[in-house]
Amino acid sequence: MPDPELGWNDTLQRAWEALGAPGAPGRVSRIDRGWSRIMRHAHDLDPMRARNLFVDVAVGDWVVPSVDSERIDHVIERTSAFVRRASFEGDRFEADTLAANIDVVFLVHAVGTPPNQRRLERELVLAFDSGAQPVVLLTKVDLVDDPEPARAELAEVALGVPVLLVSGLDRTGLAAVRGFAAGHRSLAFLGASGVGKSTLVNALLDDDVMDTGAVRHADHRGRHTTVAAQLLRLPSGGWLLDTPGVRAVSLWLSGQGIERAFRDVFALMDHCRFRDCKHDREPDCAVRAAIDAGELDPARFASLERLVAEEAALEVEQARQAKLSDRRGHRRPR
Ligand SMILES: Nc1nc2c(ncn2[C@@H]2O[C@H](COP(=O)(O)OP(=O)(O)O)[C@@H](O)[C@H]2O)c(=O)[nH]1
Ligand SMILES: [Mg+2]
Ligand SMILES: [Zn+2]
């Protein structure tokens, strides 16, 4: 059986058995120019290499290499995936998966810049769509006396999603972050450039320093630089996917992400008098009523409308490309 310490679980086992339990599954730890590095167990220091031919493979994927180890025969059905807008490469329709089988995605925001609720809303939609569990991190808390106002503002749009206070610099809250990797789970970070993702990654990978008390020294900084997406083993167990520049704006929206991230607004909509209420000037509109009563931020509602319109436009585009792809006789991804 594949190594549970590498993240293998019952869901993957079932998906593999559904394929007829072929070969020996391994996990993609890195991809370079069309070649995957595939780990066979958690302490595999010399991952095998196989070519990515005719398969959409991402870091984090569980795959079955061919008997001669040259190619990847199967990509086992993912438990979660971050997918970028599909595009044409030559005459082939490409779904670009950036990361797969991530259990927890941390949405990183920093104190010091004003809390950005609109950005967090978008990230939550993407996180829910991916299938991973979102957790919000408010980092650089060492910079302020009281991070509570910023935390409260993010919590307002995070609904039930936890907002943790952390610092990659003085190591506040790192034990809690690490706790999410219990059971050999895989973690990933999403957030604007400069919020402190790399600093957190370095702090988590650094097992020489205790979480409490010790202050990181400047010479540790920048030791680990992200060049390509890679799966890294946490010293305390579990996995960390370090991706350079996974920018929220470039990701593909699909599924139930919007409904989940805005479930408060959708719950209101259920109470509008008309089923097809546009929440504009209709009588007995529960959304307008909530806005007028100061219970719903109009900016949050505008944000929802923007995301819905964006998703609709992407769906039209995806359908158009899928049709083109069919006409050319190619198989549609997923
Ligand atoms: N004070 C403080 N500065 C931080 C912290 N984390 C990151 N920084 C600084 O913020 C800048 C950007 O950090 P970096 O980790 O590269 O952000 P990334 O772009 O999200 O990977 C660097 O100058 C870091 O030293 C933190 O927890 N506290
Ligand atoms: Mg970085
Ligand atoms: Zn309405």
Can you walk through the features of this model?
This protein has 334 residues and is α/β, with parallel strands linked by helices. The protein has 3 domains: 4-77, OB fold (Dihydrolipoamide Acetyltransferase, E2P); 104-249, P-loop containing nucleotide triphosphate hydrolases (Rossmann fold, 3-Layer(aba) Sandwich), CATH 3.40.50; 253-327, Ribonucleotide Reductase Protein R1, domain 1 (Orthogonal Bundle). The chain has 9 helices and 13 strands. The protein has helices at residues 10-18, 117-130, 148-158, 174-179, 197-205, 257-261, 263-269, 286-292, 298-327; strands at 26-32, 35-39, 48-51, 62-65, 72-75, 81-89, 92-100, 104-110, 133-139, 163-165, 186-191, 230-233, 239-242. The longest helix has 30 residues, at 298-327. Bound molecules: guanosine-5'-diphosphate, magnesium ion and zinc ion (ZN). Residues 139-140, 142-143, 167-169, 191, 193-199 line the site of guanosine-5'-diphosphate. Magnesium ion is lined by residues 197-198, 226.
Can you name the CATH architecture of the largest domain?
3-Layer(aba) Sandwich
- CATH C-level name of the largest domain: Alpha Beta
| pLDDT < 50 stretches | 209-226
* Strand segment tally: 13
Radius of gyration: 22 Å
Q: What fold name goes in the CATH topology slot of the largest domain?
A: Rossmann fold
What is bound: which ligands?
guanosine-5'-diphosphate, magnesium ion, zinc ion
SSE arrangement, N to C: HEEEEEEEEHEHEHEHEEHHHH
Give the CATH H-level superfamily of the largest domain.
P-loop containing nucleotide triphosphate hydrolases
Report the end-to-end length measured between terminal Cα atoms: 26 Å
Structural class: alpha/beta
Instruction: Sum up the overall morphology in one term.
Output: globular
The biggest beta sheet is recorded as: 6 strands, mixed
How large is the count of helical segments?
A: 9
- Helix percentage: 25-40%
Give the neighbour order of strands across the main sheet: 10-9-8-11-13-12
What percentage of amino acids are in beta strands?
15-25%
Average pLDDT works out at: 86
The total domain count is 3
